[in-house]
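Researcher: Here's the sequence for the chain we discussed earlier.
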Amino acid sequence: MSTRPSEGPAIDSIVQASQSAAAGQRPGGNAAGMAAIGLWSTLAVLATWTGSIPPLQLLAACFVTAGVVGLVLPLWRRPAGQSWRQSLRQPWRAYVLTTAALFGYHALYFLALKTAPPVEASLINYLWPLLIVLVAACLPGTRPPPAVYVAVALGFVGAVAVVTRMRRPELEPAHALGYLAALGAALVWAAYSVLNRRHAGIPSTALALPCLTVALLASLGHGLLETTAWPEPGEWLAILALGLGPVGGAFWLWDHGTKHGQLAVLGTLAYAAPVLSTLWLLLAGRAEPHWSQALACVLIVGAGLLLRRVMRGQAG
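Model: Thanks. This is the structure I predict for it:
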């Protein structure tokens, strides 16, 4: 019988989920998380095709798309033995956590971009993968090997290189609100990614209701703060792509990844998102090439190769 004292239901449930992942669910979880990161990398280039649609209106439209798809998807594919309604059920704590994280993260990030220079805001926001690794290191039974810290450091430096183009960021007191909002966004997403492990038994199909709630909250915010802009036909296609991809499907994949994958690995690989995002922008002609992008690619690939070596060593 274990003599480990109870650390509270929240920590115990996270530990149990981590132990479950260690029992054989990691490969699928890691793959889902990496797919989410890949989809997130398309966010910037797709957003450039949405014209002048206000942020909250765009957020509402994307999450409506994601929510409707989430309602329809279980009609064809859902956990064995569950009805359509059962596949959407979840404890209220899981519903509140997901809704607050999805809406809170985007609201804070949009606020940061509005009240601080985008380079500095993005750089602070990209602390969330590092925070995931640090928090995962504190969980009993999930402490990553030292090489993971080296990998996440390489990833963070790569993100700094691609975001700043190797220019020194300037943190000015006048933009303090924006910096705090960006830090808040990073904290919200890191906390959600770790706490989501408490609900590993809930199918990802249950995300449909939080997505629709976020759409409702964003619509209310849009009505109060913004002027509606009617999208052009091409912009509707971009909204659909966003709702199916980086602002929709990616959250289903990340949900599965954080519940059944290795948090330290996913946190490190998340630094590939800004590099891949820059590459998509270059291919679309929406960004100018710079030597710092090549440096970032080398650092991110190095981090990935190091992680691969770590995972092979653990498997062996």
